[in-house]
Design goal:
The complex is a heterodimer.
Chain A (H helix, E strand, L loop, with lengths): L1 H14 L9 E9 L5 E10 L2 E6 L9 E4 L4 E4 L1 E6 L29 H6 L3 E6 L7 E9 L6 H4 L7 E5 L2 H4 L17 H31 L13 H10 L4 E6 L2 H14 L3 E6 L7 H7 L2 E4 L17 H7 L4 E3 L10 H10 L5 H6 L3 H7 L16 E4 L10 E6 L2 E5 H14 L11
Parallel strand pairs in A: 1-4, 1-5, 6-7, 9-10, 10-11, 11-12, 12-13
Antiparallel strand pairs in A: 1-2, 2-3, 5-14, 7-8, 8-9, 14-15, 15-16
Chain B lengths: L1 H21 L3 E8 L7 E9 L2 E7 L10 E4 L4 E4 L1 E6 L4 H6 L15 H4 L16 H9 L2 E6 L6 E4 L1 E4 L5 H4 E3 L4 E4 L11 H27 L11 H11 L3 E6 L2 H14 L2 E6 L7 H7 L3 E4 L9 H4 L2 H10 L4 H7 L4 E4 L6 H13 L4 H8 L1 H6 L17 E4 L10 E6 L2 E3 L17 E9 L2 E12 L2 E8 L2 E11 L2 E10 L2 E11 L3 E8 L2 E9 L5
Parallel strand pairs in B: 1-4, 1-5, 6-7, 11-12, 12-13, 13-14, 14-15
Antiparallel strand pairs in B: 1-2, 2-3, 5-16, 7-9, 8-11, 9-10, 16-17, 17-18, 19-20, 19-26, 20-21, 21-22, 22-23, 23-24, 24-25, 25-26
Helix pairs in contact in B: 6-7
Classes of the chains: A alpha/beta, B alpha+beta.
Chain lengths: 438, 537
């Protein structure tokens, strides 16, 4: 009996360990949806040392390379989630209103089981962010979901470093129950939010000037008196990096008016906004967003869950994409993250996007938004071997992800996983009620 | 008659000064002396005088002083007193913080602002030490004679002290104070930082500010003209030597990510860091080996909440606690990583001993375990010139065990701390196995001459070992040395009422839903009656 428990435990643990293929892999006879270069009805993909080396028909594997026959299945680029909060030990630092100094890189959580959930839905890259509690939140990070590997090995180093901003009801804490006698935090209104962000950016400007002055004085050695450097302030360093172009802004935003206001702020202080988050009213300012080349990272069909989300529409993502806005569908969740392909399919139903354009919402477009489209987001020779294999067309309602591959290594194999789970159950047929689950 | 009186006076004069100064001289003879890295002495003699080890060597080669009390130790093994290099026990607050006070007695929020401060590097834990005889006794019983007591609240929680458990008041116990600044990845209650990433940012900014403050101060002292003087800041004042002069910082790491965080911060600020806790150290052994940081590994085998084992439910978590985490010290040892072992995070000394045996069973060689409890912690804490081995001139902290100290059947027979032979109190031997379970919650009524008192009692039982606590409106008190044999239950309760501590002994009989017996309090006895509180489903 005791032995059984140990065996089942081992299997249980083994079941969630990744199966490594060593970065060399040949997928044969699948329908390849490259996203950028059309569809190959029956083709092969060769990955060597983690990179896609060949896409075509009748490719033979070099000696020692593992071959998987995926006849009847569909091969797409690994799905990319432009906005989530998984794989972290914290979400919001609510102790202050401005927390640009906090960096999500410091709280990576490699054993978060949400990573496994995500790869079971074909997700290979995520942008995981600070929450939206503060007008200026923290610095975020892009990860490859190499489940079972150490946190540092997951970091997608080439991705843009980003800084989270947030506007609207979350920041003003408009949806909180007001407790009698408790003070409300500043800012408690939309104009307050813009004002405090402008104030902080102004401080950052002065901070840069202070350091420039100090460096100049030091260089010239003109001053005949003791010279102290300015105090190094990690919060202002982050904001200064935004103004210096070393960080790009990602801004949680719902309403069209405050979004336009934030764009004006970015002109005033000359910083780059990579993306607006959620923004259900994007369809009202699609032309402006397209002209500014600012992307949007949105929910497919979720709105009206708070006042500022009241005017969302199902055709928004498709409409904006048609207007030339760089649109991605995000999960913002550890559950929706496993069915982003379903969300992409809805953009065909609501708004009539072509298949490739719909797939781009969860592959190439988020890659561009994160600055990593050179390496991921489509199936092209030279890009990373990040791939999801589906049993049916990935935009079908009946599809499911069978294989998730990152840099040529298999991190999720549905068949192997189910087999291991069955064996574990056989070895220990009556698991205690307290066991399993979170 | 007159002569007799004179002789007595002379004797008094001769003996008294020595007695007053340092207690008797001891000669422990015919024991095996095991004190790595020194060679084992199969049949040895240890002379203890004036609180120090005067001589140690093979029997026959060491002269036994005439005034020495000879301790025959044939068949026993002498070890250097163990050093527990990180514990939170012995703190007044450990007991005072937990009491479930009546809600009205709670101070209004905001009144305890200083407690909320995430930075109190200027705080010395010595001011808060409350050595309880029962806890000291429980440590002596497992061979621990020296403990590093560390503050436990806040991110920069304060500075620790190294104590010899010699039964004195706190001041004569002190071996070294302060030892190190303690840093932990916790969040502040209410204010900033209240997230893990906020905590890391706060630590970085604090070190930067301390260095900046100290630079400003030095520059100003050198040439104050045309330079505004820095505003005096006690926090940065206390923190600066740790970032400027490499004074030791002990960083508590509760999981593998904490360890990597600590390594990064150490490297960024070039700290003299010592990592503590680290029960997942084996998972980041490569990083630790490269970083070359001293390690104080806690014998706490509970998987951290962040681990995959914890995420898969209680059954998997418990299995990992029994089968995976106890191998941490053994794996580190195999990888050539040096470490000391500590009781950090454990509830008592008995668990420390149990887990120590588990670590040895999981593959940690006995000699490595012994080093990790003696010479290694002495070196890490910078006291190896006076502690850590049985060598002439060192402090006489000696443990005499009936057999191999890692063998569960052995027991510590005698302990010297600072050359004092201390009395080890033991719970009465259980006469037989328990025939009834006392586990659960109980409603207790104590009636004495002063009236009645209502309390609640929570008990856990494992064989005839019993653990638990009693709560009343005065606070929560731990039950110690508890045992049940047949239906006879006995335990000791360390009671603190209005700052006064005392030990209370209970003995009585257990029925299915009833416990009846007497509490022996100093100066009297009280009736003790407990009825079972039905478990809510």
């Amino acid at each position: 009996m005791k032995k059984n428990i140990i065996i089942s435990l081992c299997l249980f643990l083994a079941a969630v360990e990744p199966i490594l293929a060593g970065g060399n892999l040949l997928l044969k006879n699948g329908t390849i949806l490259t996203v950028t270069k059309g569809t190959i009805p029956k083709g092969d993909i060769l990955i060597l040392d983690g990179f896609i080396r060949q896409i075509g028909e009748n490719i033979t594997a070099p000696a020692g390379v593992k071959v998987i026959d995926v006849s009847g299945k569909y091969i797409i680029p690994g799905i990319i989630d432009s906005h989530t909060h998984i794989a972290l030990s914290g979400t919001n630092e609510t102790g202050n209103t401005i927390t640009a100094e906090v960096n999500m890189r410091d709280v990576l959580h490699a054993e978060d089981t949400s990573i496994f959930t995500a790869i079971s839905g074909g997700v290979t890259t995520i942008h995981t962010l600070h929450g939206s509690a503060n007008p200026i939140g923290g610095q975020n990070i892009t990860l490859k979901l190499k489940w079972g590997k150490k946190a540092e090995e997951m970091i997608f180093a080439q991705a843009w470093p980003t800084l989270k901003f947030a506007l609207g009801e979350n920041v003003t804490q408009a949806n909180r129950t007001v407790v009698g006698g408790e003070e409300r935090r500043y800012p408690a209104s939309r104009m307050g939010v813009v004002a405090i962000i402008r104030r902080e950016l102004q401080r950052a400007r002065e901070y840069i000037a202070q350091w420039d002055r100090y460096n100049e004085w030091q260089r010239l050695k003109m001053l005949n008196r003791p010279l102290l450097p300015p105090r190094k302030d990690l919060q202002l360093e982050a904001l200064a990096d935004l103004l210096r172009g070393k960080l790009v802004a990602r801004c949680h935003s719902y309403r069209a008016d405050e979004t336009i206001e934030f764009i004006q702020l970015s002109h005033e202080f000359r910083f780059r906004v990579a993306c607006f988050e959620h923004i259900p009213e994007a369809y009202k300012i699609a032309k402006e967003l397209a002209a500014e080349k600012i992307g949007i990272s949105v929910f497919m069909d979720s709105w009206a869950y708070k006042v500022e989300a009241a005017e969302g529409i199902a055709t928004m993502p498709a409409y904006c994409a048609q207007q030339g806005v760089l649109v991605s569908i995000n999960s913002d969740s550890n559950e929706r993250i496993r069915r982003l392909f379903n969300d992409a399919a809805k953009a065909i139903k609501y708004g009539g996007l072509p298949e490739d354009e719909a797939l781009k919402l969860v592959t190439l477009n988020p890659a561009i938004q994160l600055g990593v489209d050179k390496w991921v987001g489509s199936l092209e020779v030279g890009k990373h071997g990040d791939i999801a294999v589906f049993n049916e067309h990935p935009l079908s309602a009946y599809t499911r992800c069978d294989l998730t591959i990152i840099e040529g290594d298999i991190y999720f194999d549905r068949e192997a996983y189910l087999k291991e789970r069955q064996e574990a159950q056989k070895a220990n047929p009556k698991p205690k009620l307290s066991g399993g689950g979170q | 008659m007159k002569l007799k009186k004179l002789w007595f006076l002379a004797l008094l004069l001769l003996i008294t000064p020595r007695l007053m100064a340092s207690g008797p001289t001891y000669a422990i003879v015919n024991c095996r002396v095991v004190s790595p890295p020194l060679p084992v002495i199969e049949k040895g003699v240890i002379i203890i005088r004036d609180g120090l080890i005067e001589a140690v060597g093979e029997a026959g080669k060491i002269q036994i002083p005439e005034d020495a009390e000879v301790i025959e130790a044939q068949g026993m093994i002498a070890y250097p007193g163990f050093i527990d290099a990180h514990t939170n026990l012995f703190l007044e607050t450990t007991a005072a913080e937990t009491p479930q006070q009546p809600p009205t007695a709670r101070p209004p929020t905001g009144a305890v602002a200083e407690e909320r401060s995430p930075a109190q590097p200027e705080f010395f834990v010595l001011s808060q030490i409350k050595p309880r005889q029962t806890i000291i006794n429980s440590f002596l019983k497992v061979g621990v004679t020296t403990v590093l007591v560390a503050p436990e609240r806040g991110i920069f929680s304060g500075q620790s002290v190294l104590l010899n458990l010699n039964g004195e008041k706190p001041e004569p116990m002190v071996v070294k104070n302060p030892v190190a600044l303690h840093l932990q990845f916790v969040t502040a209650r209410g204010g900033y930082p209240n997230s893990p990433m906020g905590t890391v940012a706060f630590i970085r900014q604090s070190f930067l500010d301390a260095a900046y403050y100290s630079n400003h101060l030095t520059t100003w002292k050198k040439s104050p003209r045309f330079l505004p003087r820095p505003v005096y800041n006690p926090v940065y004042e206390a923190l600066a030597p740790f970032v400027n002069e490499r004074k030791p910082v002990i960083i508590t790491c509760n999981n593998q990510e904490d360890i990597k965080r600590a390594v990064r911060i150490t490297q960024e600020f070039k700290l003299h860091a010592i990592l503590s806790g680290a029960n997942e150290a084996w998972r980041v052994a490569e990083e630790l080996k490269a970083a070359k940081l001293p390690l104080l590994v806690a014998l706490n085998f509970r998987p951290p909440a962040t681990s995959l084992y914890s995420a898969q439910g209680e059954a998997v978590r418990r299995k990992a606690e029994q089968e995976v985490y106890p191998a941490n010290p053994a794996t580190l040892q195999k990888m050539g990583i040096n470490f000391a072992l500590t009781s950090l995070g454990l509830s008592d000394a008995a668990t420390f001993q149990k887990n120590l045996q588990a670590a040895v069973k999981a593959g940690l060689p006995a000699e490595a375990a012994l080093k990790a409890l003696t010479i290694t912690p002495a070196q890490i804490l910078g006291v190896d010139s006076c502690l850590g081995t049985i060598e002439p001139g060192k402090i006489a902290n000696v443990v005499l065990s009936s057999g191999d100290i890692f063998d569960a059947k052995s027991q510590v027979e005698k302990v010297w701390v600072d050359g004092k032979l201390l009395k080890i109190e033991r719970a009465p031997e259980a006469k037989g196995p328990a025939t009834i379970s006392v586990a659960g919650a109980w409603k207790v009524t104590v009636s004495g001459p002063m009236g009645e008192m209502e309390m609640t009692m929570e008990l856990e039982q494992e064989g005839n070992m019993v653990r638990g606590s009693i709560s009343s409106s005065y606070g929560r008190w731990e039950i110690r040395d508890a045992a049940i044999s047949g239906q006879e239950l006995s335990f000791t309760l360390s009671v603190t009422i209005m700052g006064q501590s005392m030990d209370v002994a209970f003995s009585g009989r257990v029925e299915k839903d009833l416990i009846e017996g007497t509490l022996q309090v100093p100066g009297g006895a009280a009736d003790f009656k407990a009825t079972r509180i039905p478990r809510e489903l």
